[in-house]
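Duplicate of #3305? Posting structure anyway:
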């Protein structure tokens, strides 16, 4: 399952697509190109296991595959 939301500096949660359209705060916490790059890196659509997944903890990777999460 992919990441679905960004956590804002004030603790609020915003859907990734909504954040990329318009920031809910007065000023963006990161530059828009940086947010787009982060969003694109989260959706890689790789079927097999990657080296990074093997390095990370088993529980963490299992939960990332099974549940939506916030970045």
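Output from current build:
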């Amino acid at each position: 399952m992919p990441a679905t939301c960004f956590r804002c500096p004030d603790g609020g949660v915003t859907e990734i697509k909504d954040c990329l359209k318009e920031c809910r705060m007065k000023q963006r916490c990161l530059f828009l190109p940086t947010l787009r790059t982060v969003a694109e890196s989260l959706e890689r659509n790789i079927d097999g296991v990657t080296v990074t997944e093997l390095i990370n903890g088993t529980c963490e990777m299992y939960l990332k595959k099974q549940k939506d999460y916030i970045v």
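Confirmed duplicate; merging threads. Residues 5 and 70 are 5 Å apart (CA to CA). The first strand starts at residue 3 and ends at 7.
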